Amino acid sequence: MSQTIDRTSKVPAAQQEKPVVDVAALGERLMGRWAAERRASRELAATPAMQRIPGQTMAEHRERVLEQLKILVEHKSVHKAFPKSVGGLEDAGGNIAQFEELLLADPSLQIKSGVQWGLFGAAVMHLGTEKHHTKWLPGIMSLEIPGAFAMTETGHGSDVSAVGTTATYDESTQEFVIHTPFRAAWKDYLGNAALHGEAAVVFAQLITKGVNHGVHAFYVDIRDKDKNFLPGIGGEDDGLKGGLNGIDNGRLHFTNVRIPRENLLNRYGDVAEDGTYSSPIASPGRRFFTMLGTLVQGRVSLDGASVVASKLALTIALSYGSQRRQFTAASDTEEEVILDYQRHQRRLLPRLAETYAMSFAHDVFLEKFDAVFTGRADTDEDRQDLETLAAALKPLSTWAALDILQEAREACGGNGFLAENRLTLLRADMDIYATFEGDNNVLLQLVAKRLLTDYSKKFAGADAGALAQYVAGQVGDATLNRTGLRKLAQSIVDFGSTARSVGYVRDADAQRQLLTDRVQSMIAEIAGRLRDAGKLPKMEAAQLFNSNQNALIEAARAHGELLQWEAFTEAVEGIEDAGTRQVLTWLRDLFGLGLIEKHAAWYLIHGRISAQRAQAITSYIDDRLLPRLREYALPLVAAFELSPELIGAPIALGAEKERQDEAMLYYREQRESGTAPIAEKAPAKPVRA
Amino acid sequence: MSQTIDRTSKVPAAQQEKPVVDVAALGERLMGRWAAERRASRELAATPAMQRIPGQTMAEHRERVLEQLKILVEHKSVHKAFPKSVGGLEDAGGNIAQFEELLLADPSLQIKSGVQWGLFGAAVMHLGTEKHHTKWLPGIMSLEIPGAFAMTETGHGSDVSAVGTTATYDESTQEFVIHTPFRAAWKDYLGNAALHGEAAVVFAQLITKGVNHGVHAFYVDIRDKDKNFLPGIGGEDDGLKGGLNGIDNGRLHFTNVRIPRENLLNRYGDVAEDGTYSSPIASPGRRFFTMLGTLVQGRVSLDGASVVASKLALTIALSYGSQRRQFTAASDTEEEVILDYQRHQRRLLPRLAETYAMSFAHDVFLEKFDAVFTGRADTDEDRQDLETLAAALKPLSTWAALDILQEAREACGGNGFLAENRLTLLRADMDIYATFEGDNNVLLQLVAKRLLTDYSKKFAGADAGALAQYVAGQVGDATLNRTGLRKLAQSIVDFGSTARSVGYVRDADAQRQLLTDRVQSMIAEIAGRLRDAGKLPKMEAAQLFNSNQNALIEAARAHGELLQWEAFTEAVEGIEDAGTRQVLTWLRDLFGLGLIEKHAAWYLIHGRISAQRAQAITSYIDDRLLPRLREYALPLVAAFELSPELIGAPIALGAEKERQDEAMLYYREQRESGTAPIAEKAPAKPVRA
């Protein structure tokens, strides 16, 4: 099977006036700061032992993934994030980068690793203190202690502060009593809980001296070495799921299980022998969010894994689309390559642009994460920014990955449905990425609240008039921009030539202005509607807020899109090779103009673009950007640097081309030898039967 | 487990001024003309023997579905469509209706039945003649002859006219020689081909006397009773797929396989002993499309099955959404039911409206199908209308089902991901519905071509000026409407009150006008751009057409949406009960206004609605329609009449409510008994740690 993506591919010499993409340099840029970690992880992911075997039963798949975790340990792939005191490297960013790439082998492997080291291990690390690290981290790192992260309950996923499990301190024995008071408080959907877990970090309401101090984390042994539940502990297997069946998700419940006082992971809250509670963070609310904030790495790695999956999906679909032929629209003998059809370009190329945007945005995100968790930039504000970034990007990228996998599947037709071509199984696995580590819709509300808070800080005490003025005047506001921008006023009535209409929005500053303006205006409008919420009774305030919930989520999404666009633009500006920069500028334009086209109704309603300009944007995408970028589809996916072993899908590795070539040769030989049957002549005049 | 949907549910007495839905009558209306067939099929689908067992291996699942086909035979569920001459009932509509409902048990069962009786059997029936019926249909009906429908090849799916398989007539032996000339011409993705099929209807280029008469169908035995391939025939198993793994899809190839001349299914084309070809249809193109047209029932049943799946998905998600609670926004003690959140309503209620529209549109479609295939209304034009209906509705409903299943999955959170709650497995199975029986994007192009043809017939010989005038004047055109309508002119500048803005579009005639106008204008615009295509060389014409491909597909989609809206409106007008009619009118408005909102950019660009009106539509949906319809969510899904056995998903059958009630009782008792721990007091003044 021949490899169809040429790493050194350049546009043919005959077209040398056209820009040329430096695939190798672009590939390096896409790999980003942790290129070495990513490449090492891909090398491992390319080995058969780490890859999924489609069609395994759930039981077989679970055992296989457990064995793969042991291989990761042997390869010393799991120590990076942990403290140097226990043999780790304290390399937060490199650790995440390498785990993201494991998705290429099998998402179950990525997620089960994430459960063991990114959730269970990270909770001990971030919520525990030195004594906990010394005691448990070595066993966690070596997989001697497989563990579960017991936060979510059947009854509470999004609202973790309301979990039902209690941890009540008993002064007389200096123990916590972990207890599940009702069925909805069973811990649920926990990886490692159904079979392999021997311990768990259990999140429970900490109660001492009759006071509930809110949710804290406790280290609890749950099974003995023979995998039998310890006394007081029970559980169930979650059974078959829509995907990720290499992970043994399950439920746990606790009946007055006693654990030593020291098993409270006490970095942010402790209980003295006499039951006195203390915390370095006075506000219970802030304490809770600080604890949860240490676990943001799950969101980082889902965002990164979604980027990886999107790259793989588009590598498959664009490779196939460049070889598959169907219908003879333009020739009597040779069929069209399907990527030459406009619709096919419309389906895949904007998604390629989105993938680039997601990839560059993820770099910014991972960089921020690394800065916070290595302590380079770790103020309260840094942490809040990181959380907002996580809450904005993870929903967009996880949804995008599902959309891209689906479109890629459909673009590969029946071939796309075969398990061997990977798209369907990957999509099934990644479905739940939209829900875990924070439901996407809930996360976007967190973003919106942050945007509203920032907005109201800026306008503290402002009356309705000032707000209205802000809304009216913000066309010229550029607080989110790094450069001064000309006003958009003329756009409202620009009935000039189409070329002029397009010329304007092709400009990066204009795209930035339009995207920024939309976020600001949406938030300002909502803030205006919510301005009296504070004065209302709780129920009415809730109703008012609820009647703006959909608009809030849309504003948060617009904010995330702007972040992606900014990251893409910054990356393009940093590229030195002129040809590559030109092609990526087109791709960035496709992303930016695609967003403006998608939200054209908003821009038209708010007078930000004219009807003529809105139409010009669509024409520019269809008639210019798509045909131009179609020529670079293969170099642009080649820069993803996915080896044949990582791509896996036969249809992306030459099988289709081989078949097409053979068929074309057959017909050509028939024509040339004169052995082709002649076509039945149509009757001179169509006769109706 | 309690049943959560009350078949007799009415809105509580306290709210009697509000309209009441007559659930039973609405259910009867939704069941439609073939209610008896649907109910009988559902009864069978509700039995454990017919239902899918999640987690079975591919091999187990395939065997199980084969056994289920035998149960269908025993229940005399497969004879309906076949000729009376062989013991059938010639009940085309009733037959399809019953097969659609089998999806509730397992989509693999629906599709494998469809392969055996709807494709393989139907090809013998529609493309063969009396002698073929007598010889093979009894064995096909009894499953004595399991068979494959060998049309698609690895290299040709959408463009069936270009399949590579040949059937060359040999006068000397009076046989056809079936041959596969290259790998791309292997028959592929065929149900029954990997294991069970003993015969196949093979589509091949009919060549006699050196002339290729185009694709015809041939009956070919492929395996003996021990399931060994006959000489000259080989194949492969397609292996694991993204879904539908209860079907043994596979590949077949033929090496000079000789079959008797009589095995040509000769209704539309025959070869005499001496090799002379004859056909009742002189034009090879029309002949081909007539043959394919007889096989439209696949599209009908995928459309219907998508409606059934959407009903099931929304029954599950809306039942769960009415019981699941999360966050205490409006109360200090009781959490909110998640369907009370605006976003949750936005996610599910427009999809409920869409499902109603799809359901009523499917009734129209099935009625038309029945009229054509029972001969009640079977002119050329009827058949063309049926095919256009099929090509417009099947893409919309199969895509909608995937979208609805996914949104329902996400709306059920982690619970939605468990296989037992069905949404993920159903979605995985139905993924390929977007591709088979005609790729959705290809089908929509057929619709667009029909719309263009109709348009150009109307304007045959018209010059560019006449076309332009049409575009300008069509605001008042009502050719697609059944009623005269007032002009929309005032809408362009209606800066009146919001109430007036909304009042106008709430009107059914205005919705019809806006939706109709959009289809007509889009087609007129494209026709204008394509008007010189006929004069261009083939390649340039193809390029011109290609540069309008995306717009064509969007126009076709708009046409399909209009058909759905018309069907919904007609159904609402036929409902006698005032309360039901009122609620369904709101639901229809949500569908219609939702379409206008979705396409608001087009309406704004083309001056059909003002900015103010566009905003008023969104406000009307958010502030009026969603809160109103939220109260009727359960009666509206109750009218789908899905029994607990058919719903299957535990979260939709009371498990969630039971858990929520238990938890609420626990906390209430704690509060009342004074044993609840008190919450930690927040510090008087927030202190930053």
Automatic annotation (TrEMBL), chains A, B:
Enzyme Commission designation: 1.3.3.6
Span of domain Acyl-CoA dehydrogenase/oxidase N-terminal: 38-143
Record keyword ATP-binding present: no
Entry keyword set: FAD, Flavoprotein, Oxidoreductase
UniProt feature coiled coil, ranges: none
Annotated GO MF terms: acyl-CoA oxidase activity
Pfam families from the UniProt entry: ACOX (PF01756), ACOX_C_alpha1 (PF22924), Acyl-CoA_dh_N (PF02771)
Superkingdom: Bacteria
SUPFAM superfamilies in the record: Acyl-CoA dehydrogenase C-terminal domain-like, Acyl-CoA dehydrogenase NM domain-like
Domain Acyl-CoA oxidase C-terminal: residue ranges: 513-652
Segments traversing the membrane: none
Limits of the Acyl-CoA oxidase C-alpha1 domain: 293-452
Cited InterPro entries: ACOX_C_alpha1 (IPR055060), Acyl-CoA_Oxase/DH_mid-dom_sf (IPR046373), Acyl-CoA_oxidase (IPR012258), Acyl-CoA_oxidase_C (IPR002655), AcylCo_DH-like_C (IPR036250), AcylCoA_DH/ox_N (IPR013786), AcylCoA_DH/ox_N_sf (IPR037069), AcylCoA_DH/oxidase_NM_dom_sf (IPR009100)
Gene3D superfamilies the UniProt entry points to: Acyl-CoA dehydrogenase/oxidase, N-terminal domain, Butyryl-CoA Dehydrogenase, subunit A, domain 2, Butyryl-CoA Dehydrogenase, subunit A, domain 3
Cofactor: FAD
Family to which this protein belongs: Belongs to the acyl-CoA oxidase family.
Protein name: Acyl-CoA oxidase
Classification lineage: Bacteria, Bacillati, Actinomycetota, Actinomycetes, Micrococcales
